[in-house]
Amino acid sequence: MKLILASQGFTTDEMKIEVAKIVGKPANEINIAIINETACELAGEKSKRWLIHELSNIEKHIGGRIDFVNFRTHSKEEIRTRLMNADLTYIVGGKQHIYSKLFHETNTVDLIQEVAEKRVLMGTSAGSIVLGKQITSPRFWAERYNTKVENFEYQELELVPFNIVPHFLRKDHEKWTLEFLKDVLADNPFTVYAITDNQAVAYIDGKISFIGGNPEILGQN
Predict the structure, then answer these.
(1) 155 near 33, Cβ under 8 Å?
(2) Average pLDDT of span 164-189
(3) pTM to 2 decimals?
(4) Alpha-carbon distance 5 to 169, whole Å?
(5) pLDDT of 6-50, one tens digit each?
(6) 206: phi > 0 → left, psi -120 to 50 → alpha, else beta; which?
(7) 14: exposed, middle or buried (C-beta count within 10 Å: 0-12, 13-18, 19+)?
(8) Extended strands (E) in 51-194
(9) Within the chain, how many helices (H) and strands (E) appear?
């Protein structure tokens, strides 16, 4: 199983190099399938400039075929064909709860798992969080989403035994300092990694490694 949980994708040459090693092909030969439906469901007043920037980094660093896979319009067999024809499936950020709902309602959780087992699966921000273990800390949910985890019908996919907090130390996330995260995640029963936009956590056949330096480690374990 090969998964990469990133914060902001191909922001550095190091990210490109390390992802290419995991895929097993030169970056200029990697074919990529992009899942991007959650950004379309974000509020209209929220600028999507970040999305253009993230996609431009893919075009800059990945030289093979680029495909977009629509889970609402394509059949399950068509989705599987497109994902299996790619070396790397890339789940863009937005809101992980939308992805949880999307994969469950389209009955494609098994396809996401198959990609992780047979190809390489990479997420950024919310696209990473949905792949991880469900964070249960009540204070984290109250602070980040002003709600309770029990209020969401669909949970994370839990393909890896940890999760991430993306965009660590970014200016628009000033509230989420290391001290603040340690506090609100103190009772979380598994590891949560706080990663910057130049970092990622790789999970390759049960082994964890870091891209872009060591992240901050939070939670009880």
Answers:
(1) no
(2) 90
(3) 0.94
(4) 17
(5) 999 999 999 999 999 999 999 999 999 999 987 777 777 778 888
(6) left
(7) middle
(8) 66-68, 88-91, 120-124, 163-165, 192-194
(9) 9, 10
Single-letter amino acid, residue 124: T
Q: Provide the edge-to-edge strand list for the sheet that holds 88-91.
A: 66-68, 32-35, 88-91, 120-124, 2-6, 200-204, 207-211
Return the amino acid letter for 183: D
d(CA 24, CA 192): 28
191 neighbors 165 (Cβ within 8 angstroms):
no
Interacting residues of 203 by C-beta distance below 8 A, sequence separation 6+: 1, 2, 3, 4, 5, 160, 162
The two tokens of residue 203 are: 């999970």
Residue type, 76: K
- Summarised one tens digit per residue, pLDDT across range 83-105 is 999 999 999 988 778 899 999 99
Question: What angle, 0 to 180 degrees and rounded to 10, lies between the N-to-C axes of helices 109-118 and 76-84?
Answer: 20
Token pair 């999760």: residue: 163
CA 180 from chain center: how many Å? 22
Provide the 10 A C-beta neighbour count for residue 171. 6
C-alpha to C-alpha distance for 112 and 115, rounded to whole angstroms: 5
